[in-house]
């Protein structure tokens, strides 16, 4: 398509267009309705439904608007007798085999076929033959199918090939014998699979968790943000009787475009889990007892006031709102304590003195799609940040080069030009090799430059636009400060940018709100005995902290004030006060995504029972302990005090050159302990549908093939893993994709909650 501007006429109206632009794009922009089923602005043109047929002057027959390029002087008629006859004829053929089951179809009331049939369908069917019946496909726990309703628009097929990057669905047969299905009889494995529910114009593909729970006309719609990653995807919450029934994407081209990850779409099930806390609780005679808010708040306030400032600390979830993080920080500092942190899964804090003011991805999400070269370090971006991976895949499709240094040969939905698979300790060595290839300091690491180092260095240096992205495995690494220093040096020398993916939905906002220690204790120090009274906001520490064993011990040994939404066995046995708070859809607040966008939202349903928004709980605690400045009427007052009218924060990755060059992880058998994508927070862990997908943790470790052979495990079996003083036994399979002499054994799951840091030296034997 050229940039030449032309003029066309549609239904007697002059419109501006670009030469070669498809007619349907021009009519959509002008607000002229042309019916369609197969066309979607983010998918390729298929032109197979024929519903968008229009009359074009001097054309021998009606033409599909979605596949007809504009030409200067073209005259188009979308409502002429010829166009209407063509559209009605197409509609009649589409309805020939469609079942008359609208009353029981989940798509009823929001069905594109229903809407178009009202305008273009007939009131009597002329078809007297037997209708076809198509067997349903089992696509897994997220998507329900009724393939007899399918009208062969192929949106789902094109989405898989073009957006999800997995050709899992396709068409077999021709004509009315055509059938849409999966190539292999298995669940759809894409982390973006739920988008085909929105794309399907009929009721062939619907949400399995939502199925038969509500009708569309019973629902009200409200805007929100699901707080599970640093993208800040926008959603519409659909609500019935003060309960979230489903989430669908809300278009925001700067964040999630028109798509939504399955994690953001289906995590809402965790809102209504059986272990939601609905009343305040205090510990009396060693047992938690339900109580009223006045007593619970008084007990919490007394614990806060009784603690020496140097022994008082707060740990805030990286998914907490900016207002919650700000009030928690203000409360601690009002009590003369500097011990506050939200970086629960970080273990290396040596670089804190050199921290950027607001560390971020390093570039806008849209810019990621334009990268000529990208280096991933310790990142399975596809599962950590599905919407960012979608942008990165766009760069690959446009000719960009993607490279990786990872402890596992992760499966991506695009090809890697360089895929360095090494032990966690050697991630530092490999990145230092790239630095040395550019003539830079290696931070004291001894390394010989090999071909992969030189290729990565040359590719980054020759790229007009590029980035280095440190993922979760890098941020959780015991030598993260060295990895970060090397990445920053390489980025500067190669004239590219660098950044991190973050741990949660609000890393940038929590940092800006002051939920990081300036002169106090960090998260690791608080959990290792630095405090004796701990306030926990929104976190499930035994699964959300980097060192699960350390977190369990800290909860057992310290006075604990928990402002949380769900109760766990660990919390039930250790918390002194539990103040039940609302989840993200039940509170107003602000999240700042990993490109610095400030996005505020309101609560759309009330918290269950007597639970309250966390910011209100913190406000009252501030007043009870006599800290000045806690007289807020609503969360907007908190936001205005901290952010004013800012819609973009001044993010920056600039930091000083100095770094402690001593390495904490060097050699031996090593654990690879990243976090499964559906185990990242309390809400996601409680989504039943997500826990039945292929991406959920199934209680199975993956052991490097050479290590499996060394301990005589065979292809699979039980192994005994010892880390420091703790030991677990777990099923394991030999896996060639795992780095040599390593075991993939994640954190954030109950099976490994007795072990320590995710990346550490371990011993392994056959159980």
Tags for this model:
767 residues; alpha/beta; seven-stranded mixed sheet; 19% strand
Helix run count = 25
Binned strand content: 15-25%
Overall 3D shape: globular
Sheet with the most strands, sense and barrel status: 7 strands, mixed
* CA-atom Rg in angstroms: 28 Å
| Estimated helix fraction | 25-40%
Average per-residue pLDDT, rounded, comes to 95
- Low-pLDDT parts are none
Order of adjacent strands in the largest pleated sheet: 14-13-24-23-22-15-16
Structural class: alpha/beta
- How many extended strands? 32
Oligomer: single chain
C-alpha end-to-end distance: 63 Å
General description of the model:
With 767 residues, the protein is an alpha/beta fold. 28% of the residues lie in helices and 19% in strands. It has 25 helices and 32 strands. A seven-stranded mixed β-sheet has the order 14-13-24-23-22-15-16, sandwiched between helices. The protein has a six-stranded mixed β-sheet with strand order 27-31-28-30-29-32. It has a five-stranded mixed β-sheet with strand order 2-1-5-3-4, with helices on both faces. Strand 1 and strand 2 form a beta hairpin. The protein starts with a strand and ends with a strand. The mean pLDDT is 95.
Brief sketch in words of this structure:
The protein contains 25 helices and 32 strands. The chain has 767 residues and is an alpha/beta fold. The strands form eight sheets. It has a seven-stranded mixed beta sheet, sandwiched between helices. Strands 27-31-28-30-29-32 form a six-stranded mixed beta sheet.
